[in-house]
Each structure stands twice: as C-alpha cells, then as structure tokens.
Design goal:
Number of strands: 19
CATH topology of the largest domain: Glycosyltransferase
Helix content: 25-40%
Distance between the termini: 50 Å
CATH architecture of the largest domain: Alpha/alpha barrel
Strand order of the largest sheet: 9-10-11-12-19-16-15-14
Shape: elongated
Number of domains: 2
Protein name: Heparinase
C-alpha cells in the first residue's frame, strides 16, 4: 500500500505520540479496572486505559511504517497487547461463552491492527514477537469465527457491530494470509449482508454520523482490501452508493451535522474514507479539514492508516440546497450559512432517542437550536435507565409535552409524513406525531416546518377532546437564552413568543460522551391552549 497522500498534521502528531510512547510508562489494565463496570456500571475507568494503549500502538505503528525501520518500543507494546487478559471490553463480556471465545468490536479492531503490524512491519519485528502476534490474532479473533464455530449474535445484526466485527476480522485474515481465509470469508460476507440489509434504501445511518464513519467505514476498508486481493468489488452496488452519500446529505456546513441518535454535532469524518468514496463512487462528500491523529478518540488503526494512505485532497462538490432521506425521515435544508434539519422515524431505532419531530437550527457557524447527541456510555444507558438520561429523553429535545405527557419508546411510536414540498430554497414538511404520545385528551397532533432562508416557521396543530389543554413547548440549546418580554434570543436566532405562551429558561449539567460535564439550556413555553394551530417563528439575524 502506498504511503503517498499523508497529511502533515497527522504525521507530525503521530511522531510526537510515538516519542511519548517510547518514554512514558505504559498504563496497566488491572483487575480493579476490569471489575469496575460490573460493580458500578462505569465504563470510563477501564476504557480510558485501554484506549491509551491503543493510542500508543497506533502511533508506534505509524511511525515505524513511515520511517521503515525497527522500533524496540513497538516490539514491547505488541508483546504487552498480546499479554492482555482479553481484547474484549468489560461492557461487552458475553454471558453465553468464555470471553476469549467471543469477538466484540474492539477485539476485532485490535486483531486487525496487530495483523497489519505483522503484514506491514514483519521484517522489522523481532521474530518471536511476530510469531506471537500471529498466534494471538488467530486465537482471539479468527478461531471463534472459523467454520463450525457457534454463531456470534452480531453476525445477523443490521447495524455497526456486523460491519466492524466482520470487516476488521476479514482484514486481519487477509493481512495474515490466514489458512482459515477461504472458509472464513463467506461467513464474514454474510454478516456484511446483514449490515447492508439494516440500512434503508435512502442509505441513511439511523445511528448518526459518527456511527456511519464507524460501521460503513469498516465495511469500505474491508471491501477495498478484498478487492485488492480477489478483484471482487463490494462497493459496486447502488445501495452502497446511497450509503456513501449520507454525510453530504446531512451536512450543515463548516463541519457541523445533526447529532441525531448517539452522535456528535461537530466532528471529522475520516478524510481518507471520504476521498476514496469520492474517487471510487463519484458521490458528493462534505468539505473536510486537515486530518488529525486525534480525530478518533479510540485511535483505531483502520481509520488512521487509511487516512494516511488514501487522503488525496479530492475536490468536494458543494451540497444541494436541501436533501430528504425518506426512509429515515430526515430533512435538511441549507442557505447562506444557515441550515435546518428535522427528523421523524420511530422510537425504536438503533441508538434511539425519544425525538420524533425534533429539529435543529444552524446559523453563522453555530448550531443554535441543538441536539445534545451521545451521552457518556454506562451500563444503565444500555438498559432500563436509557430514557432517564437527558440526551435520550423526550424532555431534552425540541418537542412538546402534551397534557403532561412526553413521547414514549417503541416501534409503534411513529411519525407519519403528511406532506413534503421543496423549492429551490424552500422546504415544507408536515408530520403526524399523534402515535408518539399517550396524552389523555390528545386526539391528533401534527408538526409543520416551513423553511425559508434565515427563517423557520414551526406550526404545531393540536386536536383535544374537550376544552383547552396544557402544552409545554421545549427548545434546547447549548447557548444560554436571553428572555425578553415577547421574545427569546439565542445569539443570532430570535423567537417571537406568541400569546398566550409564557417563557421560562432552564439549565442542566450533563455529561457528554467523553465524560466531561457541560451545561445545556432549555426554553419552556407553557400555555393552556385550544385545539388548532400554534405557530412559532425563528428568525436568523
């Protein structure tokens, strides 16, 4: 593989990290850290050390690859990774088999990194390290997937697990030229077919943009490795082309995107992945920025190496004025540095939040009306306590509480499109959200968005059984609102408060996906309102 097309920042940072890895003591993955998840539900303690070790591994591998020479520190670290009790995270420990008979996301990623260390750098590694690397990858990743081994649950999943685990394991087998490869490939390709089948015809990633990079990224990395070896081209597929176009369709400009589901509103897609998709499939991709070694907090070798090898500064096509992803029920519109996005769907999506009818508003380089995205991952978040976490709850999305009721989870809690129309720079979209609520007196609720450049009209129309009904309209932001007598301002965005609504500002400290606390804000408009339409106008100054 060529090393051409590398980015200066990425290379410089990798060398800096490699120098640090050679001089600082390696943190240990102790039993005390391992048991923390089972005892308290805390994932960060173990994972922080785990990913620090992967950070050093990626840096030393990149530096050895760039310099084309041995590095004793890399030998030591590879040996230490082979010493780890398991490559599986505590949060993914299986209940139906021994932990090292299971392949999770991170075991597969680690196996891929070590296999490519052997394949790319084998001549520079001590032969004893090389032999042990090959043995451990075979034992921990390839043997549990060999023909006749019991199926793993993710092999039939329609989301990122199938793509990452199968793609990383497949790349590991290819890099090692494993004797298991002929029997392994059909099994892995069936898992990848499950991944593709879990994505609608519009190509949208319901798990959010970060999971597009993750799941679809590993699918593409494996597909290109397979094409290089066999000539078979998994990317030559209209459905795959639609999936490749997803980031451009939800792009808000300037690196911003909707943080629907468990994602982030700002972030870097792997630059090499975008360039390869633009080159191979001719799809539009978002404008990128200089890739950094630190773009991925898990320091996955697949992302970093392909960004080094594939980044080619491919010209980017400006996004269309508006996009609609009908299967995911997502609408995005852009004009003159402002953008709007909203979603329908149902309340049992992968990495689901209670957010039907939720919207965001982006203005002058900032996402003003916002989505809080992914919280810190804990055991409770993936259990019964999920919707008590603010980021996933209905109460911290820009949707109403009706007659005291919030949206409920479930696949039958659906949004139905009533009308969609779009002009050159206008979008109108109406959703029926009645099924999302168990409100005592509600008989019908529709939400209509009317977008014009620098102006969004939001019209909520309620039908109640008998008399006025209490409603609370919620609007969520990371900006502190300024409340006036008849308006609310969030920096460049102003909402005129219609009668009889009254506004109150609220704030809450939450923990982001990285575990860092942040303060978020909510404006609550309350009124007892009659059946009929109620319109709220947001203007960008």
């Amino acid at each position: 593989m060529s090393r051409d097309g590398g980015r200066d920042l990425l290379v410089r940072q990798a060398r800096e990290e490699a120098a640090r890895a050679r001089t600082e003591p390696l943190p240990a993955l102790t039993f005390a850290l391992w048991r923390r998840y089972a005892d308290t539900g805390d994932r960060q303690a173990y994972e922080g050390v785990y990913f620090e070790r992967r950070r050093r591994l990626a840096a030393l591998m990149l530096a050895a690859h760039l310099d084309d020479r041995p590095d004793p520190a890399l030998d030591d670290l590879l040996w230490s990774v082979c010493d780890e009790y398991t490559w599986v995270l505590p949060a993914h420990e299986p209940r139906d088999r021994p932990v090292n008979a299971f392949v999770d996301l991170f075991a597969a990623e680690t196996g891929h990194a070590l296999a490519e260390a052997a394949g790319l750098l084998g001549e520079h590694l001590d032969p004893r390290v090389l032999a042990r690397v090959r043995e451990e990858v075979e034992r921990r990743v390839l043997r549990p997937l060999q023909e006749g081994a019991p199926a793993l649950w993710w092999e039939s999943a329609g989301h990122n697990w199938a793509a990452v685990c199968a793609g990383a394991a497949g790349m590991a087998a290819l890099a090692l030229d494993s004797e298991r490869l002929p029997a392994l490939l059909p099994r892995l390709e069936r898992a990848l077919e499950s991944f593709l089948a879990g994505v609608g015809p519009d190509g949208a990633c319901l798990e959010g943009p970060d999971y597009w990079s993750y799941g679809f990224g590993y699918f593409v990395y494996f597909a290109e490795a397979l094409r290089e070896r066999t000539g078979k081209d998994l990317l030559d597929d209209p459905h795959v082309r639609e999936m490749a176009a997803y980031p451009a369709r939800v792009d808000l400009g300037g690196g911003a995107r909707p943080a629907f589901a468990d994602s982030s509103g700002m972030g870097a897609y792997p630059a090499g992945l975008l360039d390869r998709l633009a080159e191979r499939l001719g799809v539009p991709v978002p404008q990128g920025r200089e890739p950094s070694f630190h773009d991925d907090h898990c320091y996955r070798w697949a992302h970093l190496s392909r960004t080094l090898w594939w980044t080619a500064r491919t010209p980017r096509t400006p996004p269309a004025p508006h996009d609609r992803l009908p299967d995911a029920a997502i609408v995005v519109a852009r004009a003159n540095g402002t953008a709007f996005a909203a979603k329908g769907g149902h309340n049992d999506e992968p990495h689901n939040h209670l957010d039907l009818g939720h919207f965001i508003l982006h203005a002058h380089g900032r996402t003003v009306l916002d989505d809080l995205g992914a919280p810190e991952y804990t055991r409770d978040y993936f259990g019964a306590g999920r919707y008590a976490v603010p980021q996933a709850s209905a109460e911290w999305h820009s949707i109403p509480l009706i007659d005291g009721a919030a949206q409920r989870p479930g696949r039958d809690r659906r949004a139905e499109t009533v009308r969609y129309a779009a002009g050159h720079d206008t979008v109108e979209w109406t959703l029926d959200l009645t099924a999302a609520y168990d409100a005592p007196r509600l008989t019908r609720f529709t939400r209509a968005f009317a977008w014009r450049p620098a102006r969004l009209e939001l019209t909520d129309t309620f039908a109640f059984a008998g008399g006025d009904c209490p409603v609370a309209e919620l609007f969520v932001s990371r900006l502190r609102p300024e409340l006036g007598r008849d308006s609310v301002g969030w920096g460049p965005v102003v909402l005129e408060i219609p009668s009889p609504w009254r506004a109150r500002a609220e704030e809450l400290e939450v923990r982001g996906h990285d575990g860092v606390p942040e303060t978020v804000h909510r404006v609550r408009l309350t009124a007892a309102v009659p059946s009929g339409p109620h319109t709220f106008v947001f203007t960008v100054r």
